[in-house]
Amino acid sequence: MNVDETDLPGLGRRKDFMTTSGRRIGVVELREGTMELIVSTWDDPDTCQASIPLTGDEAATLGNLLGGQHLAMKLTEEHREIPGIVTRQFSIAPESPFQNQPMGKACIRTRCGVSIVAIMREGEVLPSPGPDVVLHSGDLLVAVGTQEGLDSAADILRNG
Amino acid sequence: MDPLALTLIELGAVVFCLGLLARLAGRIGMSPIPLYLVGGLAFGAGGVVKLEGMHEFAHLSGEIGVILLLLMLGLEYTAAELFTGLRRSWQAGVLDLVLNFIPGAALALLLGWGTVGAMVMGGVTYISSSGIAAKVITDLGRIGNRETPVVLSILVFEDLAMAVYLPILTATLAGVSFLGGLSTVAISLAVVTVVLMVALRHGHRVSKAVHSENSEVFLLNLLGAALLVAGVASALQVSAAVGAFMLGIAISGATAHSATRILEPLRDLFAAIFFVAFGLNTDPSTIPPVLGWALILAAITATTKMLTGIWAAKRAGIARRGRFRAGAALIARGEFSIVIAGLAVASGVVPDDLAALATAYVLIMAVLGPLAARYVEPVLKAFGGPVRLAAKA
């Protein structure tokens, strides 16, 4: 993917790329440290239909949503040959009992045969996390297992 | 009345009125600069109310206002940005200079104001208001647009051009001979180059020298350094404004960012007084005779800025609508045109009509610029028929 980076003297820096559907999408990093999500209009890729100011948290969450979906799609693709194996994402809610606890405490693999293959956090991927990785609210866990195993893993993460 | 009491009352009334004007400007979404000028005209020589007590203060504050305006212009861009801007847009910058300097200079010659007047008026019509342009781009949500870097690069080039132009102007106004003028130009070019090199390599040291975590210490350091550098530059005949500008360029990185934040309120106050002081010294009755010329000049230089933007945006591969947006964003003239005219008026070697023409011209352009930027697209849609799809990516 070819991302264009353009200096905006006095304002900040723009990073964007052209989608296959012909719209330009990207972010503007302003000098004050804030960020804007930009999307071009459908008929004129030079102009912006929307420039949406995002806080750091919002940008990270959006990154998780987009990146998590991508990772899950890739994993599903890879596991297609093995019948019965599914990929699913779990988000850690603020009220989850495992918030701020090491992941090993949930014993997900032991209890339901499900592997957590990655954690998406603030737009970054932690691949094959160990049992001592501490979970935070807002984390997105990418899990691989059977349908039933994943159901019970979801229940464990929500209710303990 | 006690002169001190009179001065305080007048100053208070003027600043209070400026506050009301700035609020009005914000309400109708325009730049406050034209309103400040009108305020100054109303209070000044031959105006509605005559203010005598605050003249001395207004004069010195106006000077400080110019220094702060230029210091913050220098702070706006880092040395690295200036270099990339120069590399990327020098052709557009030169076109901008030629197209927009000539109309002002030509009119001055036509009116018989001589080469000095031409030098001044050329500068007045050349320099876009980076303050108004940046505000228009932000307010209209065009930061992410493709033509925006083109517009900003041209503004960066104008910035650098100012660094060379102001010392030349100061020398011309001081009436130095051609040879003396050449040496001033050589000196100022050398100084500009050296400062840029120093800023690029050792900007962090200059920043460190003025920086402090304590905002009070930081403010005093900054202001002290700016006034010192400006004073020394002025003593060396290189123009106080250029000294402050160079200091602004040398300060870089995080320090520049916090300096901007800390100086902004001071700049707003002193710059407002500067615009009022400029208006104070202009007799409103001198404006009607030059209004026709101001309108003609406004029409011509709005067109030439438009052409500059269109050409530069076209070179950057931007489609038709974006080209017009780029042109319209550049039209506004404002603070720096008044700074140039102010330097000329202070030197006393230009006719009074020049101040009147510059005032009328900036009044028109500061109002017209943001309007043009806002309405160029709807107008284009109404008259330009169906807009072609931008196929080029």
Question: What would a concise description of this structure say?
Answer:
With 160 residues, chain A is α+β, with helices and mostly antiparallel strands. Chain A has helices spanning 56-78, 108-112, 147-159; strands spanning 4-8, 12-18, 24-30, 35-40, 48-54, 86-91, 115-121, 124-127, 140-145. Chain A has 3 helices and 9 strands.
Question: How would you characterize the overall build of this protein?
Answer:
The complex is a heterodimer of chains A (160) and B (393). Chain A is an alpha+beta fold and 160 residues long. Chain A has 3 helices and 9 strands. Helices cover 81% and strands 0% of the residues of chain B. Chain B has helices at 3-27, 33-43, 55-76, 79-110, 114-126, 130-139, 148-173, 178-210, 215-235, 240-250, 253-280, 287-315, 320-330, 335-347, 352-383. The A-B interface holds A 6-12, 14, 16, 18, 22, 24, 26, 28, 30-32, 36, 38, 40, 43-48, 50-51 and B 76-77, 81-82, 84-85, 130, 134, 137-138, 141-149, 152-153, 155-156, 257, 318-319, 321-322, 325, 387, 389-390, 393.
Structural class of chain A: alpha+beta
> Whole-number average pLDDT of chain A?
85
The termini of chain B sit apart by: 70 Å
CATH class of chain B: Mainly Alpha
> Order of strands across the biggest sheet of chain A?
1-2-3-4-5
Number of domains of chain B: 1
Largest sheet of chain A: 5 strands, antiparallel
For this structure, the CATH topology of chain B is: Na+/H+ antiporter like fold
Unreliable stretches of chain A: none
Number of helices of chain B: 15
Q: Which secondary structure elements does this structure contain, and how are they paired or packed?
A:
The complex is a heterodimer of chains A (160) and B (393).
Chain A: E1 4-8, E2 12-18, E3 24-30, E4 35-40, E5 48-54, H1 56-78, E6 86-91, H2 108-112, E7 115-121, E8 124-127, E9 140-145, H3 147-159
Antiparallel strand pairs in A: 1-2, 2-3, 3-4, 4-5, 6-9, 7-8, 7-9
Chain B: H1 3-27, H2 33-43, H3 55-76, H4 79-110, H5 114-126, H6 130-139, H7 148-173, H8 178-210, H9 215-235, H10 240-250, H11 253-280, H12 287-315, H13 320-330, H14 335-347, H15 352-383
